[in-house]
Amino acid sequence: MQNKHDETPIFVTRSFMPPYDEYIEAIKPLWESCRITNLGKYHKELESELKKYLETDELSLLVNGHMALELFIQAMNFPEGSEVITTPYTFISTTHAIIRNHLTPVFCDVRLDDGTMDAEKIECLITEKTVAIIPVHVYGYVCQVNKISQIAAKYHLKVIYDAAHAFGVKYCGKGIATYGDGVIFSFHATKIYHTIEGGAAAFHDHELYKKLYNLKNFGIQGEEIVTDIGANAKMNEFSAIMGLCNLKYIEKEIYRRKQIDAEYREKLNRVKGIRLFKEQSEVQSNYAYFPIIVEEDYKDTRDELYTRMKSQNIHVRKYFYPITCEQICYNGKYKNVDVENAKYLSRHILTLPMYGELQERDIERICEILKN
Ligand SMILES: *Cc1c(COP(=O)(O)O)cnc(C)c1O
Q: Residue 116 in contact with residue 138, Cβ under 8 Å?
């Protein structure tokens, strides 16, 4: 018998909402200035606050994480047709951003331990055409940043991290934005920290700030001068204010998720066939996601479990399945790449609901289904 509570759907995430009055109060000045976009006061203010929070020298706000990555790659001016070593175990955006820049993705396998790019497998993929490495701090798990830096230095490659999942993560006591030539964040409503829609690129080189400023505003340099083939990727003021409001609560949100993470781990630790990614040493996590691996010795297949959970109104997700190089938009072009671990994970992964407002009884309900 299902009780009423069991019928309430639980989704994989839920957008954080700041206190209503705070946001309403904060947007009031927009009715006086009537300046609601085009790189205004709050855009500037949020850039400055995020620079501090993320411990980065430079930061450019963009309309979303995808455009942050796409325009950052464009700003690097790589020759057309250059190769970029990247991971297929990610959201489609990472791969799209490379290909939309007329570059060729070369897919590197990931580690079964945490889903991040396997640094040991990078060097054999490097050719004369390689210009960059674009790994992903998937689920907020930190890539092998030191090894990747060493390889990049040896072959004079740029490293751009897709850190869409890693807002607030620290490694060896330093913000995640300090590792790499460029680090891209997503502030989409479903991410741990959001500006409704939004994103940012963090980096060290001030020249790139000017370049991105230009690229996100059509490449317009002056009233009558367009110097670059840019896009429209500016963050508007309502979003920037949402970001300023939400930034006040991010530490609380991370703390709450940390408790949920601990509860999940305690309840699922010894369930036969369910593997959890281990917590990483030297990493201060943001607990953005809770992935589980449904191994072969679990009583159901991953897909059976997914369906069983769905039938009980628990909407988990297969992040990330299929791997990006197998998506139909790429027309089978990358079919034979040697990314066995990525394929394995994508066939066995489920991400469980994770958000600050997730209740103890919800966690109970989710874990009971997994155990039964
Ligand atoms: C969400 C996400 C993006 C894209 O960010 P948007 O803000 O949605 O454009 C890119 N990469 C990864 C890994 C993501 O999860």
A: yes
